[in-house]
Amino acid sequence: MTYKIAVLPGDGIGPEVIEQTVDVLKIISNKYDKEFIFKYALMGGCAIDKYGEPLPGETVDICKSCDAVLLGAVGGPKWDSLPGNKRPEAGLLGIRASLGLFANLRPAVIYNALKGASPLREDIVKHGIDIIVVRELTGGIYFGDRGRTVESGVNAAYDTEKYNVNEVERIARVAFDAALKRNRKVTSVDKANVLESSRLWRETVIKVSEEYPQVELNHMYVDNAAMQLIRRPQQFDVILTSNMFGDILSDESSMITGSIGMLPSASLGTGTLGLYEPIHGSAPDIAGQNKANPIATILSAAMLLRYSFGMENAARDIENAVVKVLDKGYRTGDIAADAGSSVGTVEMGSLIKKELKMA
Ligand code: IPM
Ligand code: MG
C-alpha cells in the first residue's frame, strides 16, 4: 500500500518541526509496511519570496494529487505589510478552500505530566481537560464579502458573516459524529442574541440534533463560552462553532491545557483527504534556534494516520510515544518548569523516535 503525503513546511519554525515529523512518519512506514511518498511544496511567506504569491497553483495541484497534507506554519513579520490577499495567511485560507476542508478538529487535552503547566488553578484542572473544538473552516466572516468604502467622506471597512443551512448542517454532523465517539455532549457556540447568522446556525443545529438522540446538545453565547472555558473546562466535550469563534476559542482551549506547542489539528472535507497542522503559528522569534516544540506537529501526523489513512494503531503508537517521553520528564522550553533543563527540537524529536522504535 502506498500513500502520498504533501508536505508544506512553511515559515518560521515550520521547517524544523516538520523535519522531526517526517522522520516519525518514516518510522511508521517501516513498522507498518506501508510506503509513504513525501511531496514537498511551498506555501506562505516562502512561496511569496519565490513566486510572489502565497499559494502557487502548483502547490494546490500537488496537494490535490496526494492522500493527505502535512503543514508546518505560515507567516512572519517580513510579510506583515503586504495587502490582505497577498499575505501568507491568504495561502492557508486558499488551501483550505481549494481542498474543501470545511471541518477543523482541534482537540485540547491536558496531559497528566503537564498539569502544572496549565495557567488555571490546580483545583480547576484536577478534573482533567478533554475538549474537541469542531470549527467551521470554509465559511463565515473569513470568506464573506469584505471591502473598503467611504461613508460621508470617512474611510470605512466591512467584513460579512454569512452561513447557509447546508454549511451549518454538514459541520454540525461532524460535531455530533465526534460526540458519539466521546462523551456524547455537543455545546454549540454562537451569538444568537445579536446575530441573525447565529440564529440560523442555532435553528439548524437543533434540527440536525434530532438525528442524534443519544447526544446531549446545549447552546452557549460565545462570550459566556469564553468565560466557562476557564471557569469549569470539564463541562465541555465537543464545542461546535463558526470559523471566527472557533479561531478564538481554540486558542483559548489550547492555552488552558498548558501549551499551544502541544496541540495538533485536522482539517477535513467530504473525502479522506485532510490537512494536518499544529495549532501554533510560525513563532518567528525562536525560528532556526532549535527551540520549537515539535510535539504538536508530530501529533498532527498521528491525526493524519487516523483520519486520512485509517491507521488507528499507528496513530496510537505516536501518541503513546509522546506520553512516554513526557512522563520521563523531558520538556521543550515552552512546557519546561525551568528553562535550564529543557531539550531542543531535534532532541525532543529523537526521544519520540526512540520510543517509537522500542514500542
Ligand atoms: C488558525 C490561524 C489562522 C486562522 C490564520 C493564520 C489565518 O489563526 O489556523 O487558527 O485564523 O484560521
Ligand atoms: Mg487561530
**Strand residue content:** 15-25%
What is Rg? 20 Å
Largest sheet: 10 strands, mixed
- Decide which structural class fits the backbone: alpha/beta
The CATH class name of the largest domain reads Alpha Beta
List unreliable stretches of 5+ residues. none
Distance from first to last alpha carbon: 22 Å
Number of helices: 12
User: Which architecture of the largest domain per CATH?
Assistant: 3-Layer(aba) Sandwich
Order of helices and strands: EHEHHEHEHEEEHEHEHEHEEHHH
What is the name of the CATH superfamily of the largest domain?
Isopropylmalate Dehydrogenase
Mean pLDDT level: 96
Q: Fraction of residues in helices?
A: 40-55%
The best one-word shape is globular
The ligands found in this model are: 3-isopropylmalic acid, magnesium ion
How are strands sequenced across the largest beta sheet? 2-1-3-12-11-4-5-10-8-9
